Amino acid sequence: MAKTRDVLVHVDVEVGAGKRTCNHSRKHSIPKGTAHLAVKGGSYRARKNYCSECAKSILDAAKERLREMEKKLTA
Which of 44, 55, 59, 62 has the highest CB neighbour number within 10 Å of its CB? Predict the structure, then answer.
């Protein structure tokens, strides 16, 4: 049986080894040792970090997009 492909390979939740700044709102900081959303890839293998508050809206939009794609496939 073929292995199911992971399409979210560039997105993960990580715990920062140091303080980080949220890439969605520069006013939000991500303290050392705090879980945050990490998105890897893009130009020059860039990495973007998002605090839990900003990550919620990003993940909500992704869930909606996945639902829409699933509807198209099952219609």
Answer: 55
Task: Quote the CA–CA distance of 75 and 70 in Å, as a whole number.
Answer: 9
Ordered mean pLDDT values, 10 residues apiece, the chain (75 residues): 90 95 94 96 85 96 96 94
Q: How far apart are CA 61 and CA 55, in angstroms?
A: 10
SS3 10: coil
Give me the pLDDT at residue 40, please.
92
All residues at 6 or more sequence positions from 53 whose CB lies less than 8 Å from its CB, including other chains: 28
Domain regions of the chain by residue span: 11-74
Q: How many other β-carbons are positioned within 10 Å of the β-carbon of residue 13?
A: 11
